[in-house]
Amino acid sequence: MKVFVLFVLLLFVSGYAKSQSCEQLIKNIEDAFRENVDPSHQIYAFSSKCAEISDENRTKLHVYRLKQFRVLGQYEQGLIYVKKHVKLQNNAEFALEAAILYYVLAEYESTIPICYRILKSEDLTLLLSAKTNSMLANAHWKLGNSAYAEKYFKSCFHISSSLKDSTLISLALNGLGLINYSTGGRENLVKSAQYFSRSLKYSTSLNSFDNLSTKNNLAAVYYQLKDFDKAGQLFRDCLDLSQEIGDTSTAITVLNNLGSIALIRKDPYEAAKYLNESLELHRLFSRGEDPPTELLLSLSDLNYAQGNYKMSRDYYEQYTSGSLGLLNAERNQAMIEMQEKYEALNKKKEIDDLKISKQRIELSNLRLQNFIAFMSICFIVFLLTLFILIYLKRKKDQREKMIELQRAGLEASENEKLRISRELHDSMGGTFTVLSLLLNQKHFDQPDDEVFKKMREVIDVGTGELRQLCRDIYPQSLKISGLDNSLKDLFGTLNSRQNVVQFELEFEALDFTPGFSINMYRIAQELANNTLKYSQGDHAMLSGALEDGIFHVEYTDNGIGMNEKTLKIGVGLNSILERSRSYSGKVNFEKNKNASIGFFVSLDFNTDKILNETNG
To answer: Is residue 2 pLDDT above 80, yes or no?
Structure first.
């Protein structure tokens, strides 16, 4: 029994020791990756001692091997390893390493979908989420999708801020600064400077190269903002840091920028110091390559400012030849890239041809069906439209025929009244005239005879009433003096016959057609008769004026107004409506428009229907 207990205790102690050693190995491997050192021995030890303990450790081993390919620069081998272990991409940490490999190989379009899958994975931690958002932002930035890049950089910043991870915070701010810098414009440059400045506050955890890059970017922003004091100070800091870490390329660029600032400030001695130092560094480390074109241009400007025109010309000639060479090199590189893309597209096209041929057949059938359906719908719509247009045309023709018939009926009625008026005037008028002459002769013989005086008065009254009757049947003054004067005679007669209602007229004198003149006259008669019969008022007003091509007529009185029964079935009002519509007029009745008006009606006529051509 004692032996068994001792054996179990020994197993527990060995397992605990093994667990402790695995934790130490994991720490050593993570430290090596953080310092960008090859952790091959530690990974081998982890594989031997810890990989079989748990599935988690086995997954960690695959992640470490993938990171190892990245640290050693073996990116293609890393991608082969990723494709060999496709199932492991369900693990967020392994998938992130795969996305980094695709990003390093500039396969940004492959990086993005992997990052989207990571963000949806169940084992996603906040740290992995921040790193994935950073990777996603950088991939979108490389593809030129600035809006998406800004979105994911901001997401990375918020997550890393909650984690207080200064490295990720600094990288996110640096990315936001680059986006605003590339957008241009003073407002965006100011934002860019703010982002880069905040990034520098968190850059203590970054390596020296990242710190140098952020400072250099901030200095470039201040240079664009023409704040040469801050730009110069930052460029000098960059110069010290680049010399400290041995980054000759950045040192040459910084020296050239410092020389440009000195030239802007018209300090040729300081400019010569920086530019000559830049040229010297280039000669020492360029291995025979031509100086940068920006440096040659700055040296040309410097010598020109110092009066060394021959040196200025020589540098400028080197600058132009270098620019052309650089342009040709860029063109050649672009042609090579285009050729590679063309070949890749051809291969992909060969693979997709079979699918496309099948899809074409299906699409052609579908398009034919859609075309037949579309044409059927168009034909039905065409028929419906044609039917509606024909129906509307017929309705319009019928309406116009009705108006013409109404107008013809009214004209026939008025012509008949004219004939009756003439007949009465000619026959009865002549009779009354003869009687008057006979009585006058008799009265001359017997001047004091009361009977003859009475007969004379009766004949005079009859003659006046006959003339008024003829005028009421058809006013002859319409043809002689026009509508406005005929209305004046009408209202004057009404005012002289009675003293209950006072009629007023404000009617514009125009050359109206005979048909409209008689119809307007009849409308005025009907309105005046209604006022006398029903209004119980003491004042009425008729006005007519031409306004913007419309002849507008209004009639008002201060009586009791119109009740609903009169408005709906009144014969006189129907006559007004018919006469107005026969000339395409619009009639509007209003009851109690305001406190001082009992009855109101307005009529609007188009001038082309009511005026003679001489008015137009």
So the answer is: no
Q: What tokens were used for 421?
A: 């008026």
Per-residue pLDDT of 79-121, as tens digits, reads 888 888 777 777 888 888 888 888 888 888 888 998 998 888 8
* Domain that includes residue 71, residue range: 19-124
Q: Assess whether pLDDT exceeds 60 at residue 206.
A: no
CA dist., res. 567 & res. 590, Å (int): 10
Whether residue 616 is predicted with pLDDT greater than 50 in this model: the reply is: no
Do residues 63 and 97 make contact, with C-beta atoms less than 8 angstroms apart? yes
Count of structural domains, the chain? 2
Q: How far apart are CA 484 and CA 51, in angstroms?
A: 115
In a domain, 419, yes or no: no
pLDDT at position 11: 38
Dist CA 48 CA 521 (whole Å): 120
Q: What residue has token string 């014969």?
A: 571
Q: Model confidence at 474, in pLDDT bands (50, 70, 90)?
A: low
Given the structure tokens 């002289």, which residue do they identify?
Answer: 496
In-domain check, residue 167: no
Structure tokens at 424: 């009465």
3-state helix, strand, coil in the chain (%, to 5): 80, 5, 15
> Tell me, what CATH number does 70's domain have?
1.25.40
Instruction: Tell me whether residue 226 is in a domain.
Output: no
Please state which of the ranges 213-217, 250-254, 302-306 shows the lowest mean pLDDT.
Answer: 302-306
Note whether 571 and 597 are within 8 A (CB).
Answer: no
| 115-160 per-position pLDDT tens digit | 998 888 887 888 888 888 999 999 998 888 989 999 999 999 899 8
| Angle, CA of 237, 240 and 244, to the nearest 5° | 135
The CATH number given to whatever domain includes residue 572 is 3.30.565.10
Whole-number mean pLDDT of the chain? 76
Question: For residue 547, which of 477, 606, 500, 595 has the smallest C-alpha distance?
Answer: 606
Which residue, 124, 152, 169, sits at the end of a domain? 124
Q: How far is CA 262 from CA 249, 301, 318, in A?
A: 20, 11, 22
Mean pLDDT of 408-424: 62
Domain boundary (124, 149, 168) is at 124
For 378, counting Cβ atoms within 10 Å of its Cβ (0-12 exposed, 13-18 middle, 19+ buried), the class is exposed
* 232 Cβ neighbours under 8 A, 6+ residues apart: 258, 261
- Return the structure tokens found at 64: 């470490």
Within a domain: residue 160? Answer: no
Q: Calculate the dihedral angle through the C-alpha atoms of 285, 290, 295, 301, rounding to the nearest 10 degrees.
A: 140
The dihedral sign for the CA sequence 237, 240, 245, 248: positive
Confirm whether pTM is higher than 0.85: no
Q: Which helix (H) or strand (E) holds 601?
A: strand 599-606
